Amino acid sequence: MNTQAPPGVLINGRFLSAAPTAVHRVAYELTRALGELPQRPQVSIAVPPGARLAWPAPNLPVRETGRLHGIAWEQLFLPQAARGQLLLGFCNMAPFSVRAGLTMVHDAQVFTTPRSYGQVRSAWARLHIRRAGAAQRGLLTVSEFAKRELVSLGIAPPERIHVVHNGVDHVRRISRDDTVLGRLGLSPRRYALALANVQPHKNIGLLLRAFARPGLAGLPLVLTGRARAADFAAAGWSLPANTVFAGYVSEGEMTSLQAHALAVCTPSLTEGFGLPPVEGLMLGTPALIAPCGALPEVCGPGALQVDPHDPVAWEGALLRLQNDPALWQGLADAGQIYAARFTWEAAARKLVEVIAQVTAQWP
């Protein structure tokens, strides 16, 4: 019988000083929720020396360790800090020398849609993921769909890949900033929302073709995020006159845009999870999604599923939502009920179960 005390857990806190992204949001919220659990393993966070935190410090010990920053710190000094502990990484990457680790791989898109990431970035990420899958105690991922893809690619067998669904209830603690509606000239339920993203798998070109159709001429398509009109033009896409580029928006502005939209549109050809439509569901806004990737799994009955290659079908679905208040309300109500299962507390509790499982025999 193994009577050795369970090991401590060290979180790779490099994300705490990184610019906010969807992956970093997941890392932060999961770490925050873990720190708020009354019963959890002994957990601390390692960060590079002199790190300036871009997120509020979670309720866990944060300690600076090693030298250097970025990838060099992660590969050379984090393994030393993690010695004798289980290392948790939530951002796809992991030190090559660490075996006592759990790394969260959010999706398999660097394998299935490498054009979306570029040759060098895809190759580097694939190397990390394959190494973690082969050498570590297990992998974490965020949906059953993502797990199936990782298994089919031979990254790790199913018993070593653990699903910890994302939460979306962080939107409930964000104060909405409704001034964004006036700034962009928008009215509640009189616009659709999507991401300004030119990655091929995001398939936003499909939305541009749909909003160029006459039936949607009076409905703005609001795009939030980094990509601008010039980026879409460079990608070969024509912009309809009713496209509104919001650019980067604050958390409060984003929450307002999600809460007041007619629909959050996600025509992606694949997603490991898909935070924006599920965040919208929790705020009471229906989703229009492609029946691809994890989107049906995480959106459930709060979404209309629409052919990701048919702009006419997207035009029709949006017009149905616009012209049928009962349909809109039914989807909104069902979506809120379904999205209520995706909390960060539930994710943290599942993570604690996985930690107990993989450390049952230690070292």
UniProtKB/TrEMBL annotation:
The keyword Transferase applies. The keyword Transferase applies. Keywords: Transferase. Residues 189-327 form the Glycosyl transferase family domain. It holds the Pfam family Glycos_transf_1. Residues 93-170 form the Glycosyltransferase subfamily 4-like N-terminal domain. InterPro entries: Glyco_trans_1, Glyco_trans_4-like_N. CDD domains: GT4_MtfB-like. This is Glycosyltransferase family 4 protein.
